[in-house]
Amino acid sequence: MSESKSSAAPRAAVGSVSKGRKTSMERRSFFSWLAVGWIAFVGVTGGFFTVIIRFLFPNVLFEPPQSFKIGYPEDFAPNSVDIRYKKEFNAWIVRDDESIFALSTVCTHLGCTPNWLATDNKFKCPCHGSGFRMTGIHFEGPAPRPLERFKIGIADDGQILVDKTKSYKWEKGEWENKDSSLKV
Amino acid sequence: MNLVAIKSAIDALSAPTISFTILTVIFPFIFPPSDWFEKIHRKTGLWRMWTKPGGLIGMILITAFFVIGYFDVYFNKTLTKADNFPIVLMIYSMWFLIWLGMYKAYRNDIRIEQGLKPEEYNDPDDKVLVWPDLVYIEFIALILFQVFLIVWSILVAAPIEEPANPAATPNPSKAPWYFLGLQEMLVYYDPWIAGVLLPTFIIVGLMAIPYLDINKKGDGYYSFKERRVGIFIFMYGWVVLWLFLIIIGTFFRGPNWNFFGPFEYWDTHKVEALTNVNLSEILWVKWLNQGLPSNILIRESLGFIVTGLYLFVLPVILAKTYLKDMLAAYGPTRFVTLMILGLVMLALPIKMYLRWIFNLQYIIAIPEWFLNI
Ligand code: FES
Q1: Nearest CB to A127 within list B173, B276, B370
Q2: Mean pLDDT of A154-180
Q3: Are residues B25 and B61 in the same domain?
Q4: Does residue B217 form part of some domain?
Q5: Using one digit for the tens of pLDDT, what is the confidence trace for A41-87?
Q6: Which end of chain B has fewer CB atoms < 10 Å from its terminal CB, N or C?
């Protein structure tokens, strides 16, 4: 085939290489090699991206559930801050004179985690020194707004249920919302 | 002399309110931007800082501070922290480089006064070839620096802390040393301003200097007198508003980001009772004795007026009065750019003092829109 072609249209042949019978490739075998090449290419890139996409989904998720039960209202002493849930759930459970609420542990300045200083009765951020009262209201340092509160309610079994998917911001007047704190 | 007394004196003086004020007040006498300052600079002998003995005394004082600090129980902890080693180097190199520049500038100033050419023109033949002269020097400096870095990294273990835990932020939490000036700014400004706007202004402003500076003198040689205002402003921004803030952040900030003197115990429970107020609260609650208006724009109106006056009206007034000549010389575009850069730079110390004196938190406080100035 290549022979007839090259003899029929010698001018179409490119360069001198194609004239040699042994070096030129059959058209059909060229297509089959092309197919193999493409399949290999698709296989490799496909595998590559599959692995990468798989990588985005970790085997184990350490994320704790977004809503959790923290026991009964009586478990919390009045005027106290409970720091037991800080590590796992990033929330402080505060009980003041009339209500229980869950404060987010994310500083509203740049997002560090403040510490509860029981002796000074305040949350104090170690990054730029913002201070928050027990209620979450900011009063010193650069934080421009109070800590956010999480949704809190009573579950069917009488335990307190904190739901972190919903948070309430003071500056938007959302602390008025009945779900932002639990009257006791 | 009693070392304890000296230490507590240094502790008291290093409180940023005091040390920052002292630095700001004496700064124009160290880098005199006008004839009046120059006169006092000469009379008090401050100019001797920029002579050889002055440079040496500076080095000795810095070293004495570190030696005394090394043997102090509390300062030793800060000083020998691996993170803080670069700051020690920074303080030495900062002093040396400023001194070197000023020393050469003062020698040239005297020569220029006598009608001579600056010293730089007295080199055997004015020009040096890039290759091999400059490249060789750079190459040797590079090798020496490599050696230094390798020795450093072998001798001092990297200051790596325990694995990160989102629930426990180290107290105090410090940025890398070169960012501590930024972290100080964050104490006074909202993250958007201190973390994004001001750094952008710094970088853009520094890049703009060659285009803004039309003073042809001092080109290619050291000189102070010929560009004293420029040097003064730059030095204030660099030394006080950047380097000194790094030093405060490194040595004077302890747990809960409270201030501590260098020789003071880092007491986690040090209480500094502060209650910050926004300008709107001062206006409505304190002065007008009523609640905050619910309309945000009315609530923050005073803040907007003050900011507007500062950023937009002040340059116009200055252009008409005090800086008339400057406007004529620099043209409106340069003038406006310089004004904005300068006013933004000055806004940092202004805000620091407002915080220190009036506990003022934000001039415009609209957390609803994430706009706090
Ligand atoms: S992140 Fe808490 S004060 Fe800046």
Answers
A1: B173
A2: 88
A3: yes
A4: yes
A5: 999 999 999 999 988 887 777 677 888 888 888 888 888 898 888 88
A6: N
Is A149 an interface residue toward B (CB < 8 Å)? no
- The reported pLDDT for the residue numbered B126 is 64
| Three-class secondary structure of residue A151 per DSSP | strand
Q: Give the span between the Cα atoms of B48 and B51, in whole angstroms.
A: 5
For residue A111, give the nearest of B166, B195, B59, B142 by alpha carbon: B166
Please report the pLDDT score of residue B123 as a whole number: 62
Report the distance separating Cα B293 and Cα B306, nearest Å. Answer: 18
Does B258 sit within 8 Å of A142, measured CB to CB? no
Domain range holding B93?
Answer: 3-121+173-257
Q: Which is nearest to A164 in space by CA: A98, A106, A97?
A: A106
**Burial call B231-261: b when 16+ CB within 10 Å, e when fewer:** bbbebbbebbbbbbbbbbbbbbbbbbbbbbb
Instruction: Look at residue B272 and tell me if it is in a domain.
Output: no
Q: Please tell me whether residues B224 and B291 are part of one structural domain.
A: no
Q: Under 8 Å CB-to-CB from A45, ≥6 apart: which residues?
A: none
Answer whether residue B262 is part of any domain: no
Task: Kindly state whether residues B237 and B333 are assigned to the same domain.
Answer: no
* Residue numbers of chain B with a pLDDT score lower than 50: none
At B156, list the tokens.
């001092």
Q: How far apart are CA A141 and CA A131, in angstroms?
A: 6
Q: Which of B62, B64, B55 lies closest to B88 in space, CA to CA?
A: B62
Strand partners, A182: A100
Higher pLDDT, B146 or A90: B146
Chain segment A91-137, per-residue pLDDT in tens: 999 998 888 999 999 999 988 899 898 888 889 998 898 999 999 99
On chain B, the residues whose CB falls within 8 A of the CB of A91 are: none
Looking at the structure, tell me whether residues B249 and B283 fall in a common domain.
no
Question: For an interface test with A, which of B276, B366, B368 has the most A Cβ atoms less than 10 Å from its Cβ?
Answer: B276
Type of residue found at A147: L
Residue B32 DSSP label = -
Q: Looking at the structure, tell me whether residues B289 and B236 fall in a common domain.
A: no
The string of pLDDT tens digits covering residues A14-36 is 444 445 455 567 778 888 899 99
> What 8-state DSSP symbol labels residue B362?
-
Residues B107 and B231 in one domain: yes
B285 and B251 share a domain?
no
Predicted pLDDT at B1: 60
Mutate to test the interface with A, among B161, B169, B352 (most CBs of A within 10 A): B169
Using the predicted structure, report yes or no on whether residue A10 has a pLDDT greater than 60: no
Residues B212 and B88 in one domain: yes
Please count the structural domains in chain B: 2
Q: What angle do CA B291, B297, B300 make, to 5 degrees?
A: 60
Answer yes or no: is B140 within a domain. no
Alpha-carbon dihedral of residues B182, B188, B191, B197, nearest 10 degrees? -70
